[in-house]
Design a protein that fits this description.
- The complex is a heterodimer of chains A (251) and B (603).
- Chain A is mainly α and 251 residues long.
- In chain A, 81% of the residues lie in helices and 0% in strands.
- In chain A, helix 3 runs parallel beside helix 6 (134-147).
- The longest helix of chain A is centred in the N-terminal third of the chain and has 30 residues, at 55-84.
- Chain B is α/β, with parallel strands linked by helices.
- Chain B has a domain at 446-602: Jelly Rolls (Sandwich), CATH 2.60.120.
- Helices cover 23% and strands 25% of the residues of chain B.
- Chain B has helices at residues 2-20, 112-118, 134-142, 182-192, 215-227, 239-247, 264-273, 281-287, 294-298, 308-315, 324-340, 360-371, 376-382, 385-390; strands at residues 48-56, 61-70, 73-78, 88-91, 95-99, 101-106, 121-126, 151-154, 197-200, 232-235, 252-253, 276-277, 407-411, 424-429, 432-433, 455-456, 464-468, 477-484, 489-497, 505-511, 527-534, 538-545, 554-558, 563-567, 579-587, 591-602.
- Classes of the chains: A mainly alpha (251), B alpha/beta (603).
- The A-B interface holds A 15, 18-19, 22-23, 44, 46, 48-55, 111, 114-115, 118-119, 121-122, 125, 127-129, 131-134, 137-138, 141, 186-187, 189-190, 193, 216-220 and B 3-4, 6-7, 10, 14, 17-25, 131-132, 162-163, 167, 170, 172-174, 188, 191-192, 465, 467, 471-473, 516-518, 544, 547-551, 553.
Chain lengths: 251, 603
């Protein structure tokens, strides 16, 4: 098999997995709809109703909340379930490359992120009076999609380590406090001092920081946030690779 | 293949959503349509000749002269100027023309710029606000187009320690931990568009201790500002901190301290450092118990220009400081000591702090300066040429050829009676006369109110929600519960008011639509009827309306234990055709909140 057809094979496989992920999402509305609506509902309540005048700031933090959830759960719960069903093992026996499996999941998470971010953005524009340039709106979307990469890696690691029953509970136990402590619900600068100090070390806080910068809500340079996020990304990818290899050895 | 097509369709839909998202308004407001009394001679705007007028040019007085406004600028001044064809002629007999006034200490939020201009304040020097809309404010002040907003210069974020004064307002202020951060901090402010640097030196008041910047950081900030050709001004509230700032090289103090009297040593230091001082008399009067602000509410000119939100601000009070009388007499003595020594004095209000509001409070400041012993001419200089000189604002605070055509015409002569500054007859911004519509004073229609349109707000509990400032970063909290009697239900609100937020509140919100904060048309209603039972204290109704959900709500004080019939037409700025929500809140001093809404109707 020469490299060109090998590449074609890979791309075709990835397209097939993206398609099947699409079908998966369409056919499981009980999973799809709540995952999409939960952060949007949260933003409507907190960002638009209860805290008037901060729609733009909270758009950045709640969009972060939504995109992190989308990738953590798509990868974490999805992989834990498929692993337990033996689906992943079965796949290993087929010519399907691992990259295609991940591309399918990645597509699903990115799609969720885009939908959540854009619906929130439309609500913010309609009911919160938020006005930004197209470059800033697009920047927000790109930060959300790129910012979900470390959480996708974390999700893979968790999915390979947890049983399908434990995965949703454990992920929620990480997701919700992490979101709160990173100032995604209540801006970090309004949290008590010791929590602010903690927020500075948490990755969601820095995704939100990047979003705040790209939308012009905050000024200054986001280099520190970028550096911390890259560090976390490397760590989480390492964790995912370790968990994957460990699970491989057990099967 | 079908699946790939539907994926592509969804992606296209998302792209369409992205492109639908609205853009910011254009930087400059559209030129206003000239009023019927405004002749239009060129594209540059109206030409106006005010004749037979007494005129203060920012420094000197001119008896019976005339002034020609053209192209947004003062064209010429002289006793017998010929009227160009098509010029609008204004008879200035018995009146005085003053340069558009400068308020040298505000915090500009919400409708500050519109509010200030109604009172003839055409330029405001802001001493702390977030910098996000600086591109707009900078473009506005560079323009000579018609505008209904005062121009704004600003320090942007203030320099303070983590947790220090200035961080309590729910605004993410970049703080400083050490002198080594000063240069980068100042550079960041300059990049954001700050016009000068404001440094907070505030160790706390009363029993409250606050982290504050030390002399090392203050000195480093001042040096960094001066390296970048920026002024550095300081918030200080004590003699010792003022001395520290002066020794560190400060250019100006934006409050006057009251903890002790100024002595010769201070005067010598202040003179050597060539500083200026903004005494912010209205806010100090509020803190030290000399807070008569009611005269503005009932003033024939100021009163009608004050919408409910501004009135509420004037009605708010700081907790009374310890030893207020001594402190207030120190303020007066210190002001005169500085003035006598030739230290430049700048008028400033510190609006929107309690007991102050944009615009009107600068007229209050002028009265307080004169009451403390400043000659009226110097008080007027303090609100015009002196701030323009100290802050380097060319063409402002003056009425001379080439200056901006920013001016106000007042009845009487402020040189003999400073109260005349508030007798505003007309305001021009960039040569365009501001059209100010007096809110209609309508007769009481209580007896003829239409019953057909009545709506009991308490009928639908799902429209109500508890609300308090804890969502805005404050410490107050609220919870609601319902009690049902035979024929009516009432809403019980319990909670706690705590200091922390700028405007502490705890209460309940009613939403106009089943979708919260969605606007609904209530234009047929004329009255809001509210009755609450509970402990005495401050209570407010907040009415949210307008095109944007982020619009400032209108505030109406409500009395506990009696029926409040609030006339909706009389609330300036309320847009009944786009009513979003009505909040009923306990506000003000820290206390336990426990009240019952027994009647809430729109009639």
């Amino acid at each position: 098999m020469n490299t060109t057809s090998n590449l074609q094979h890979h791309l075709r496989m990835q397209a097939r997995f993206i398609e099947s992920q699409w079908l998966n999402l369409l056919r499981t509305p009980a999973y799809t709809l709540p995952t999409l609506l939960f952060p949007i509902m949260f933003y409507s309540f907190f960002g638009l109703l209860l805290i008037p005048g901060q729609a733009q700031f909270l758009l950045c933090t709640f969009a972060t909340f939504g995109c992190i959830g989308a990738s953590l759960f798509a990868f974490g719960v999805g992989i834990a379930t498929e692993r337990a069903q033996g689906w992943l093992t079965l796949l290993r026996a087929t010519p399907a490359p691992v990259s295609a499996v991940l591309a399918g999941k990645g597509f699903g998470a990115a799609l969720f992120t885009a939908i959540v971010t854009l619906v929130m953005a439309m609500l913010a524009a309609q009911f919160g009076g938020v006005r930004m340039t197209t470059v800033q709106w697009s920047g927000l979307l790109l930060v959300m999609i790129a910012g979900s990469v470390p959480f996708a890696a974390l999700g893979i690691g968790m999915g390979m380590s947890l049983s399908p029953n434990a995965a949703p509970a454990v992920l929620n136990l990480i997701y919700l406090p992490l979101g709160f402590m990173s100032g995604l619900w209540i801006p970090a600068h309004q949290l008590p001092g010791f929590m602010q100090a903690m927020a500075n070390w948490l990755p969601p806080y820095h995704v939100a920081e990047l979003a705040l910068h790209v939308t012009g809500t905050k000024t200054g340079t986001p280099l520190l946030s970028l550096g911390i996020l890259l560090t976390y990304t490397v760590l989480f990818i390492g964790f995912a690779a370790w968990a994957w290899r460990r699970a491989d050895q057990h099967t | 293949m079908k699946n790939l097509l539907s994926i592509a369709a969804l992606l296209l839909l998302l792209l369409a959503a992205l492109l639908w998202l609205p853009q910011p308004e254009p930087l400059l407001p559209e030129a206003q349509q000239p009023g019927p009394d405004m002749a239009h001679t060129s594209d540059e705007g109206p030409v106006t000749l005010i004749s037979n007028v007494r005129l203060f040019d920012g420094e000197r007085w001119h008896a019976a002269t005339s002034i020609l406004l053209r192209d947004g600028l003062v064209h010429s001044i002289g006793p017998d100027l010929a009227a160009p064809a098509q010029a609008v002629l204004v008879d200035g007999s018995g009146k005085t023309a003053l340069p558009g006034l400068i308020d040298a200490h505000v915090h500009s939020f919400g409708t500050a710029q519109e509010d200030a201009l109604r009172f003839g304040i055409t330029t405001m020097l802001d001493m702390f606000r977030p910098p996000q809309d600086f591109p707009r404010t900078h473009a506005e002040r560079a323009s000579l187009q018609a505008s209904d907003r005062a121009d704004l210069y600003s320090a942007g974020y203030l320099a303070t320690a983590a947790g220090g004064h200035g961080t309590q307002y729910g605004i993410a202020v970049p703080t400083l931990a050490g002198a080594d951060e000063a240069d980068a901090w100042v550079a960041a402010r300059q990049t954001e568009g700050s016009d000068w640097i404001k440094i907070v030196i505030e160790p706390g008041w009363g029993q409250q201790r606050l982290p504050t910047l030390d002399a090392g950081v203050v000195g480093a900030l001042i040096r960094a500002a001066h390296d970048r050709d920026l002024l550095a001004v300081a918030h200080v509230s004590t003699y010792a901190d003022a001395m520290m700032a002066i020794e560190a090289g400060i250019d100006g103090l934006v409050h006057l301290f009251a903890d002790r009297r100024i002595d010769d040593g201070f005067i010598a230091a202040a003179r050597a450092a060539d500083i200026f001082v903004v005494p912010t008399m209205p806010v100090l009067a509020g803190i030290y118990g000399h807070n008569d602000t009611d005269w503005m509410l009932t003033h024939p000119v100021l009163g009608p220009r004050l919408p409910a939100g501004q009135r509420n601000n004037l009605d708010m009070r700081f907790p009374l400081a310890d030893d207020a009388d001594t402190a207030w007499s120190n303020v007066g003595a210190n002001l005169i000591a500085l003035h006598t020594a030739g230290i430049p004095i700048l008028a400033g209000s510190d609006a929107p702090n309690p007991a102050t509001t944009y615009g009107a409070s600068l007229h209050h400041a002028l009265r307080l300066l004169v009451a403390a012993g400043l000659p009226a001419a110097d008080a007027l200089r303090a609100a015009s040429s002196v701030p323009a000189r100290e802050f380097g604002l060319a063409g402002r605070g003056c009425l001379k050829p080439g200056c901006r055509a920013d001016l106000l015409l007042v009845a009487g002569d402020p040189l003999t009676d400073i109260a005349a500054t508030a007798m505003i007859d007309a305001v021009w911004k960039n040569g365009h006369q501001l059209s100010f519509a007096m809110p209609a004073m309508q007769p009481d229609t209580t007896s003829s109110a239409a019953v057909s349109g009545e709506q009991d707000l308490l009928a639908d509990p799902s429209r109500w929600m508890a609300a308090a400032d804890d969502y805005m970063g404050g410490a107050s909290s609220a919870a609601i519960s319902w009690s049902q009697t035979d024929d009516a239900s009432s809403l019980q609100v319990s909670g706690q008011l705590e200091p922390g937020h700028v405007f502490p509140y705890a209460g309940a919100m009613w939403f106009a639509s089943t979708i919260p904060m969605q606007p609904e048309n209530f234009s047929t209603r004329t009255h809001l009827v509210l009755q609450i039972e509970g402990a005495a204290g401050d209570y407010q109704a907040l009415l949210f309306s307008g095109a944007s959900q982020a619009s400032q709500p209108q505030q109406v004080p409500i009395k506990v234990g009696e029926l409040n019939r609030i006339e909706l037409d009389a609330i300036n700025g309320l847009e009944l055709n786009r009513l979003r929500a009505i909040g009923v809140f306990a506000s003000g001093a820290a206390r336990e909140v426990d009240f019952r809404i027994v009647q809430a109707r729109l009639e």
